[in-house]
Each structure stands twice: as structure tokens, then as C-alpha cells.
Amino acid sequence: MANSNDKSKIHQIEITSLTDDIITFVLYNSNYGMANAIRRIILSEVPTLAIDIVNVYENTSAFHDEFIAHRLGLIPIDSRNIKQYEFRELCKCRETCSKCTIQYILEVQCKNRDKLEVTHYDIEFTGNEPNIPMPIPQGNKKKMNKNNIINNDVNDNYNMNNLDNDDNIKLENAIPIVSIAKNQMLKMKLIATKGIGKMHAKWIPGNVSYRIDHKVIIKHNLIDKLPREHKLLIINNLTNDCYTIQKENKNNGYNDNNRYDNVNGYDDDENAYDDIDITKKDIQLKLNENMSVVMAQNCIDLLNELGYKDIIKVVFDETKFHFKVETIGSMPPEQIVEMAMEILEDKLRSLEPKIKASFYSIEEVATQLKEQGVSLYGIDLDLD
Fold first, then answer.
1. What is the rounded CA–CA span in Å between residue 265 and residue 274?
2. Which run of H or E residues covers position 51?
3. What SMART domains would the database entry show (predicted)?
């Protein structure tokens, strides 16, 4: 275990960017085990709310009950206050209560048109309690339609009472559930519960990925010595952000200010090399050391095929990990990371006494065996 006084060995996190949907951060002084533990906890153990039980009273749509129930389960529900709710199996109530379940109703009928799209905005809470978690993005279909009608100067004779069954006006960010035809109806009772991704994918709070830090080492002096046709092959196998070349001027040769400008590859711009005399001038090619591992490996493979070795090398830092966490909308991305760290800390804290108990039990067994005269030769119990 690292010395707590040695700050260079302590795990550290630096947030590099944060938006409403995505957080990226760098994990320093770590290893694959810790990085993968964080990833797995985010995917499988950070709790959220999701629709778990669907009671179908009427479904005359073309879709089966199970199909609609599956779609309902994947709709994100506001889980920012997830700590206020209990897991249903651990709740002290007999069946359901406000601490372990949230009940909604989905009741829609297509009356006055040929087709109606049912979206998550049609899901309504059955009670009167304030601040109840609702599907994300939150909104009221009737209110949103009313605002849109007023803002769009619809005819004053429009019947505002028909808004619940009107989908003429497109609702922003609406999650479609099912489309129903004229005279078809849905009537369902929905029960949302607290769960984790280990139980079902509908409780996963978002997506997470990480990559280890890398550095691309390029011997630029050897790149400069490559033949012109080989440089063109390299350019054609890389994306535009991986290189710069000095563009030639038809009248004056190379630019006087010796500036490197981006030049698109063949696929992106057919006229990219119109101002370069392929037969007379050499290309001053500069490769970007910040290119991705994939692009660097493509370049290495090409150079190997051409007979050049060790011009480009990729070095990995296996103590530095770049994370990207994207939420599905049920909670902010920074909350996902924070809860994952709390869960990991609790796991490590609960593991410590078990390790100590296991060690003491081995020591006691060894003492008893010695008293009984049993030889411990060849058994390393590390009792010192």
C-alpha cells in the first residue's frame, strides 16, 4: 500500500471538462484494477429509478404488452434524489409505499385523427405530492402544446380541450413509446423502483469508457529524409488533424514565412495538391505528436511495409487514465462519478475488517498446529 505521506503515489482525479451530459476526467497514479473497478461500479452499481412493473388495463395498439413495457422501462427517470428512496426488497413496507415506489399512469386514446404518437410526456403521476421524479426530459404535454399554439399564432377557434389528443405540433425531445391509430387506446399503471445495472440494463445511469495515456514519439529528422512518394502515402493514410505540410506557392515556390498549413487528404479534397508540383519539389511534412493511437499505429504499419523501422513509437503510461462518462439523463454526470466513488469507498472500507479477520484466523490455526506438534515446514504463513 502506498505511503500516505507520499502524495505522488496517491490516486488523484482532475476534471478536464463538464457539460450537462458528459464529464471527462483524468485518473492519476492508478492502475488497471482501480480504473476498471470505477468503470464497473458506474455501469452496474450506481442506483437509479426505472419503470419496473407495468399493469396493462387496455392495449388496443398493434404492439404487444411486453414490447411496450420494455420501452417504458428504458425511459430515464429523474434520479437526482435517489438516496431518498429504498430498494423495494429492503423496504420495511408490506408491498409498496412512497419510499420504495413511484406510481404513474399512461392513459391515451386517439379520438380525432388517423394516428397519434404516444410519448413519455403522456406519462402522469397519480398522486399530489410535490417534487416527484418524472421521466426525463420533464414537461407537460398539454402545457407545452398550449404554449406552442399561442407562440405560433394558431387560429383562435382552436379547441384547447383537445390538446391531450393532439400531436400536430411536434414536441421537443419527446421519447416515442408507440403510435396508435384512430379509436385505439392505451391504459396502463406504471410502477418505478430503485435498482442497479447489475439487476437490469434499464437501471444503468449512463455509459463510461477509459483509455490509458499515451505519447507518440516521432523522429522528425527521419521523416524529412523520406522520399516524396512515401510522404504522400503517409498523408493519404492519416486524418487531417494528424499532420501539417508546407504548401507551395505556384509563383514563389514555398511560402516565405515558412508556415505550416493544414492540407486535406485525397478523399476530402480532390484539389488539395493542385498547388504542389509533385515532380519538382519535396514536401515538408510535419506529423502531429498528439495523434490518436489508432492513427499512429496505421502510420507505423505503413512505414514498416515501406521498410522503415522505429521512426514512430507509441509509449503508454499505465498509471494515467482518461475517463469519459455520459449520462442517459437520469442524473448529472458528475453525480454518477461521485456516487461511484462513494460506493467504491464503502466496498474498500467493508473489506478491511474481513482481511484482518482472515489473517487472525490463519495465525490462530498456525498456533494450534504448533502446539499439536504438526510440522509447518514448507508453509509460509508470514507470521512475522
1. 12
2. strand 48-59
3. RPOLD
CB 315 within 8 A of CB 215: yes
* pLDDT score for 162: 44
Between helix 32-44 and helix 333-371 the angle, nearest 10°, is 120
CATH number of 12-46+207-214+318-384, picked from 3.40.640.10, 3.20.20.70, 3.40.50.300, 3.30.1360.10:
3.30.1360.10
Cα 166 to Cα 145: distance, rounded to the nearest angstrom: 8
Residues 63/69/75/76 CA torsion (nearest 10 deg): 180
Q: What is the pTM of this model?
A: 0.72
C-alpha cell at 67: 414490447
Q: What is the mean pLDDT of residues 198-214?
A: 95
Are 151 and 91 a contacting pair, CB within 8 Å? Answer: no
Which is more confidently placed, 288 or 271? Answer: 288
Confidence tier at 172 by pLDDT (50, 70, 90): confident
24 vs 17: CA distance, rounded Å: 5
> Could you tell me the three cell numbers for 80?
437526482
Strand intervals (E) in 60-205: 101-109, 115-119, 123-125, 176-181, 185-195
Per DSSP, 246 falls in state P
pLDDT recorded at residue 139 = 64
Q: What is the CA radius of gyration of the chain?
A: 31
What is the distance between the alpha carbons of residues 304 and 225, in angstroms, rounded to a whole number? 16
**Contact of 8 with 2, CB cutoff 8 Å:** no
Task: Residue 245: name the closest of 253, 237, 236, 235 by CA.
Answer: 235
Residues 141-150: contacts with CB under 8 Å, at least 24 apart: 141/171, 144/171, 144/172, 145/169, 145/171
Residue-range domain boundaries for the chain: 12-46+207-214+318-384, 48-204, 220-310
CA distance 314 to 297: 8
The CATH architecture assigned to 48-204 reads: Beta Complex (2.170)
Q: What are phi and psi for residue 269, nearest 5 degrees?
A: -150, 110
Which residues, 6 or more positions from 116, have their beta carbon under 8 angstroms from its beta carbon?
A: 108, 110, 165, 167, 179, 180, 181
Question: Diameter of the chain by CA atoms?
Answer: 101
User: Which of 278, 125, 101 shows the shortest CA–CA distance to 195?
Assistant: 101
